[in-house]
């Protein structure tokens, strides 16, 4: 895939997507923190049975952009569920992140 570039239409932004970024980065955990001036979202990849996980990407947003992202995610989830049905949340009623992530339970 080549760099994705198209001539912008009137009032549109020309956004470049390189091959490396287009591949994406898998994440199965997001950790969100904030200060008065920014929101920080760390995307983590946890592996089954491995007690250590690495932050694969960190995104820093202004509070205004964080709120826009929240609204855009809510809108896209609504559209997804309209087409594919309700997304089941494995954490509903379970309270928290399963730290063993499906791997064998630790034994002493």
Would you kindly provide a brief summary of this structure?
The protein is built from 2 helices and 3 strands; from the N terminus they run αβββα. The chain has 108 residues and is an alpha+beta fold. Strands 1-2-3 form a 3-stranded antiparallel sheet.
How is this structure best described in words?
The structure is a single chain. The protein is of the alpha+beta class and 108 residues long. The protein has a domain at 25-84. It has two helices and three strands, in the order H-E-E-E-H. Strands 1-2-3 form a three-stranded antiparallel sheet. A hairpin with an 8-residue loop joins strand 2 (39-45) and strand 3 (54-61). The relative contact order is 0.13.
Give the topology:
Elements: H1 19-22, E1 29-34, E2 39-45, E3 54-61, H2 63-84
Antiparallel strand pairs: 1-2, 2-3
- Biggest sheet strand order reads 1-2-3
DSSP, total strands? 3
Low-confidence stretches: none
Mean pLDDT reading? 85
Profile the largest sheet.
Answer: 3 strands, antiparallel
Tell me the overall shape. Answer: extended
Structural class: alpha+beta
SSE string: HEEEH
**Separation of termini?**
50 Å
What radius of gyration results from the CA coordinates?
18 Å
Number of helices: 2
What portion of residues belong to β-strands?
15-25%
Q: How much helical structure, as a percent, in the residues?
A: 10-25%
């Amino acid at each position: 895939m080549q760099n994705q570039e198209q001539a912008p239409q009137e009032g549109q932004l020309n956004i470049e997507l390189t091959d490396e970024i287009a591949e994406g980065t898998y994440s199965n955990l997001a950790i969100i923190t904030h200060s008065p001036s920014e929101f920080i979202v760390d995307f983590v990849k946890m592996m089954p049975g491995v007690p250590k996980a690495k932050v694969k990407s960190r995104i820093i947003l202004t509070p205004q952009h964080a709120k826009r992202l929240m609204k855009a995610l809510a809108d896209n989830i609504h559209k997804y569920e309209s087409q594919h049905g309700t997304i089941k949340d494995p954490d509903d009623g379970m309270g928290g992140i399963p730290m063993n992530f499906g791997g064998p339970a630790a034994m002493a």
